Amino acid sequence: MKASLAIHRGQPDATSRVETFAIEFEHGQSVLDGLRMIRRDQDPSLAFRFSCINANACKECMMSIDGEVDYACTARLKEGTTTLAPLPKKALIRDLVTEIAPPDERLERSPRKR
Amino acid sequence: MPPEEMTPLETDVLVIGAGGAGMYAALEAARAGSSVILADRSLIGRGGATVMAQMTVAAALGEQTPDNWEHHLADTLAAGRGLCDEKLAAILCEDGPRRIREMDGWKVGWAREDGHIKQVQAPGHDRPRCVYVDFLSTGPAVSKTLRTRLNDTNNIRRIGDLLITDITVRDGEAHGATALHVSSGRIVPIAAKAVVIATGGLTRLYRRNSASANMGGDGYALALRAGAELIDMEFVQFFPIGHLAPRLVGMDPIMWDPFRYKLGGKLLNAEMREFEADYATRDARSDGRYVLTRDLATYAISKEVEAGRGSPAGGAYLSFQHVPPEEIRRAFGPVVDRLAANGIDLARQPIEVAPIAHYHMGGIRVNETLESRIAGLFACGEAIGGANGANRLSGNAITETFVFGARAGHHAALRAMRRPMPSPDVAGPAIDFLRSAERRDVPNTAASIASLQALMSDNVGPFRTGDKLRIAIDRLAELQRDVGDRPLSSSSGGFDPVLIDWLDLRNMLLVAQAVALPALARTESRGAHQREDHPGLDDVWEVSQIVDMTDDRLNIRAAKEMAAA
After folding, report:
1. Does residue B539 carry a pLDDT above 70?
2. pLDDT mean across residues, chain B
């Protein structure tokens, strides 16, 4: 089966663009599987967060999928076009990566020195 | 543009990795009076293996049935097939109950029965010894409990998105580390009086694995480059019945074991015939209920697939069709609904399973204070080697995160009290190295990682031969040449996935060699290391192998003189 992933890309100080990637997939594969395929076969510079891959334990792969906030590891790929964008209410870092850490677990928010 | 460097951070104790071991180390170092930085390359308490653990935790509590830590030790040593570091294994078993009760006091929620903590039987244990949190929630509950404790503890600074690239060593002592702040792209020098590596294992070296994407052996590579030793690196544990098909999302691939245990799930080949008994005669340690231990079950499934009797996706069937649906519901609880959402109805269909890289017995060689050969460089959890020998007893992984985490944190704090704050200036070479990153389009770093994983799975998997291991070692050298010795980047700014991949490849390639070389040297089969060209135990090999690095070359040697043949 064939899917198109239309992905919002960019960094905070630049205009974002939408790039579309065509991938082949098998029934049951996740959006995160598709993103990892794109990095491996087409463009390794595509940025997105994930850690646990499949278990929905790390909660890092949250993004906007066709306008709804969801986890890329549990959302399934579908035929036709799926639009992926960074989380709308979080600060953009790059592509699908946003600042999702709690404020007191960030480098910047920590007191600089004891 | 080279990454920008920022003002150095300072701390008494730097803990690298915020899984169970790292969080426990941070808590215990702070309890002993140290300031702590707890750094993780992803989110605090979210990455790593602990959060993924769905299974049981072994400790001789004596709640279910009378027990003593020495019985637990005897089982641990037997599972380790003669290679356990007995002192570390004794610490693990003796200290386990105290930490399990401490976690109980912190309201982790161990399952209870008739007013006591429930302990269940797990393979390789002589009695019911393993605690858990229902349903399949042990890891998430442990992580949440430790995260809550961290929040309530002063003097611990938690920093996510901080990828440690090198330990700073001067005159044989750890002085801190250099980090890449992933989300800003900045270089962060960290001065520390003591450093604790708690980065977990290396299962990411394999195509199919049960741990997080950040378990690429970072800590082993950091330790090697710092001058520390690794031990037992050839022993990678494969979990026999990792989920294979149909595609299952939102669940840990090793979820089937407790159910198989509770309900007696049947392993079937393509002819829908049970085959475990065909291999059971090979297993002197079979306990009757669990027909085969992990290493033999892995062997049996692999051999059925090789003989053309594998399931369509290349594994074995696991069937619960003989179990009444109400019993399935009682055992699986809400998991039944999560399976249904994946289109799986266990009463109507078998699922497919196959061996999956699960845990690493080997790791950083440490003494009883969890300190490596490099003064001030400590390690804990899956990152250390020795306690589990050639094969880990089920249930010991989470126990060791608590026990060794706490112990490493405590001793790191004691050391920090005796030292002045080191100067961060000595981190210069590691900073220059990161600054030397260059933009190149080839190789595709994500594809290189996939190649490395395929190479390791095909040639350094559970069943090895001299020929395959030599192929692996040659091709690792080729991959190393392709990847180069200067960091690659794709652009400036935060979260450059190419730079992150390149730094991961640097570690993964080094660690892959540190597995393949001792695996080639060990011409016998023991525990998780099975050589098809050298079947069976060989008494002269009842000895651990040590790996270290000088002038960018790995050296392998036996831990003690080998017995006469």
Report:
1. yes
2. 92
Q: Give all strands of the β-sheet with B351-360 in edge-to-edge order.
A: B236-245, B351-360, B316-319, B266-268
Q: Residues of B numbered 16-35 whose beta carbons fall under 8 angstroms of chain A's beta carbons: which are they?
A: 35
Query: Which of B218, B79, B80, B220 has its CA nearest to residue B544?
Result: B80
Test the A interface: residue of B249, B251, B255, B501 with most A CBs within 10 Å: B249
**From the CA of A54, how many Å to the nearest CA of chain B?**
6
Q: Answer whether residue A113 shows pLDDT above 80.
A: no
Alpha-carbon B145 to chain mean position: 20
- Residue bearing tokens 């991949």: B501
Peptide bond into B246 cis (omega under 30): yes
Q: Side-chain half-sphere of B6: how many Cα atoms within 13 Å?
A: 17
Distance, CA of B369 to CA of B91 (rounded, Å): 10
| pLDDT at residue B291, as a whole number | 56
Give the sign of the dihedral formed by CA B403, CA B408, CA B411, CA B417.
Answer: negative
The token pair at B221 is 């590579």
Nearest-CB residue to B214 (from A11, A51, A108): A51
The residues, ordered by sequence, that sit 6+ positions from B220 with a Cβ below 8 Å of its Cβ are B202, B230, B233, B363, B364, B383, B507, B510, B511, B514
Q: At what angle do helices B256-263 and B325-332 cross, to 10 degrees?
A: 130
B78 by Cβ neighbours in 10 Å (0-12 / 13-18 / 19+) ranks as: middle
Q: Where are the alpha helices (DSSP H) in B33-161?
A: 69-79, 86-105, 138-151
Higher pLDDT, B7 or A62: A62
Distance CA B73, CA B92 (A): 8
Which residues of B are less than 8 Å from A76 in CB distance?
Answer: 249
pLDDT given for residue B1 in this prediction: 45
| Cα angle: B275, vertex B280, B285; to 5 degrees | 145
What pLDDT score was predicted for residue A109?
62
CA distance B250 to B239: 19
Q: What average pLDDT does range B69-77 have in this prediction?
A: 97
- Chain B contact set for A55 (CB, 8 A): 52, 250-253
When CB atoms are compared, the residue of B10, B183, B249 closest to A73 is: B249
pLDDT tens-digit readout, A14-44: 788 999 999 999 988 999 999 999 999 999 9
B372 touches B547 (CB < 8 A): no
pTM of the complete model beyond 0.90: yes
Cβ(B110)–Cβ(B118) under 8 Å? yes
Task: Mark yes or no for CB contact B497/A45 under 8 Å.
Answer: yes
ipTM over 0.90: yes
- Which residue in the block uniquely carries the two structure tokens 């430790």? B146
Give the residue from B445, B458, B461 showing the smallest Cα distance to B503. Answer: B445
Give A-chain residues touching B181 at CB under 8 angstroms.
107
Among residues B488, B431, B503, the alpha carbon closest in space to that of B4 is found at: B431
Closest listed residue to residue B301, CA positions, set B162, B461, B178: B461
Higher pLDDT, B474 or B46: B474
